[in-house]
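Morning F.,

Quick status update on the modeling queue. The single chain you submitted on Monday has been processed. Sequence for confirmation:
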Amino acid sequence: MEVDYQFMVGGQWVAHPGNDGVSYNVHILDRDDPLTKGISDFTVVSEQYYMHVDPAVKVHATTPFPNAEGPYQTNGEVDMPVVWTKRWGVKEEYIITVWDMYLKS
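Structure tokens below.
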């Protein structure tokens, strides 16, 4: 993948252990930020993406990632960023990695 693109979006998809149909919680970190104001924590059923994330991003939401089988197993449980903003030149990019989802009732 193009290096400039990776710096622009601030992250790189690595894997989705468990494939589709994983139920997981999304935790909103800053409820006063204009991007997340009025949004509460929620649960989705979808693919849970394991990402490599640029430390320069501002994280707005995370999901607890379990200790799943695979090469990342030694990392143990982590809080994986799923929503963040990244400064790119004079613009701020908004990234969300919660895809193909449906809200769990």
